Amino acid sequence: MIISAYEDHQSNLPFPLISICNINPARGTKLYNIQSAESQDRGVDYEIFSDAFQGRSSENLPESKLKVPIFKLMEKASHQIDQMLRSCKVGQRHCSVLNFTKSILPNGACYTLTGDLTGIDEIQLVLDPQSYDYLVPNQGFIGFRILLHGYGDSLWALIPTAVYAGPTFHTMLRAVGLKKVNNVLLNYMML
Questions:
Q1: What is residue 11's predicted lDDT score, i.e. its pLDDT?
Q2: What digits encode the pLDDT tens for the residues 169-178?
Q3: Structural domain boundaries of the chain?
Q4: pTM value?
Q5: Is residue 26 within 8 Å of 78, Cβ to Cβ?
Q6: Mean pLDDT value across residues 23-42
Q7: At residue 153, does pLDDT exceed 90?
Q8: Mind telling me which residue stretches traverse the membrane in this protein (predicted)?
C-alpha cells in the first residue's frame, strides 16, 4: 500500500495521520485458548468476546472469567503490529513497529503511525492481515481499515469513513489534502 499526499499545487497541506485496523477484531487462536491444558478453558474467551461483541449477556461462565474486562480481553486477543507489519517506509526513511501507537476500539485494535511527518510526501506499508487467524463466522472480509485523519481526531468516530484494503491486490491511496476550518475536519479527498 502506498499513501501519498504530494500534489504540486497543494504541497503546503499537512500530511494526515494514518491508522490501520485489522478488519478482524481478534485472533481466533487467542480466544479459543488452544494452548490451555484445561479443556474447560478452551473456547471460554471466545464465548465472552462473542457475547460482548454482539451485545448479549454471558451465562454459565467461570466466575474468574466474568471479572476480566472486555478491554483486557481485546488487548490480549487483538492482532499485533509486530506480526502484521512486514515493511514500512516514510519518505526515504525506513520505519518500524516502534513508530506506531496502539488504540483499542470496540471493533478491535488500530495502530497509528506516529512521528514527524513534516515534509513527507509518501508512506509505503506492506501488511499481513493474518487471515489464517480470523474468527469464524465473519462477514467474509479480509484486510485492513485505513483511516486518514488529523491530530486529535477520535478514531472510533472515523471508522465509518475508513478505506478498506484487501490482501489480494496492491492498494494505492493518494491523499490530496487535509483542511480544517474552525477546528472542524472538513474533508479528505482520496483519488
A1: 55
A2: 666 665 555 5
A3: 2-25+80-190, 28-77
A4: 0.77
A5: yes
A6: 73
A7: no
A8: none
